[in-house]
């Protein structure tokens, strides 16, 4: 049965980054971060009264090989070239992607970093990517009551061309010269 599952892709879904299938998922790290406020007080520990959620982050690494796993599936070096070009297009077009792993489905994620590596150890590329959840907002409209929308200011707000007055240099207090140079030996 294991051979048939491998051959016909039965069982767990294949890991996908957008349209790029990974032959093997090596790591999957989900980061849930938040900022907790902290205010110092005279006595006792800091007061913390608010938590702000950061967007969820995902880091994963995997392998794409030149071997075709499925019958009649694409294989060879063209598979590697297609995978690399698809990742370049995601980066270039700033496309939100859906990532499918064996544990979760991540929708509406933006790629923040991608490393594509190749060694002389066979026809494969290693992919290390970082993604961040895209948080969209919607415009909210509200009706303003007419009483609030009308201005209450009357007359002119200020005068243009009014003289600002004069200042005198004699009225300013002159500071005594510093004796720092004589005390430290500087400036001698």
Key features?
9 strands; alpha+beta; 29% strand; two-stranded antiparallel ribbon; single chain; seven-stranded antiparallel sheet; 188 residues; disordered N terminus; 18% helix; 4 helices
Describe the structure.
The protein is an alpha+beta fold and 188 residues long. The protein is built from four helices and nine strands; from the N terminus they run H-E-E-E-E-E-E-H-E-E-E-H-H. The chain has helices spanning 2-8, 77-93, 146-149, 180-184, and strands at 16-17, 20-21, 24-31, 34-36, 51-53, 57-65, 97-100, 105-117, 124-133. A seven-stranded antiparallel sheet has the order 2-1-7-8-9-6-3. The chain is elongated.
In helices, the fraction of residues equals 10-25%
SSE string: HEEEEEEHEEEHH
Q: Distance between the terminal alpha carbons, to the nearest Å?
A: 94 Å
Largest sheet: 7 strands, antiparallel
Structural class: alpha+beta
| Helix count from the secondary structure assignment | 4
| Mean of pLDDT | 81
Alpha carbon gyration radius: 33 Å
Strand content: 25-35%
Shape: elongated
Task: Identify low-pLDDT runs.
Answer: 1-9
The counted number of beta strands is 9
The neighbouring-strand order within the major sheet is 2-1-7-8-9-6-3
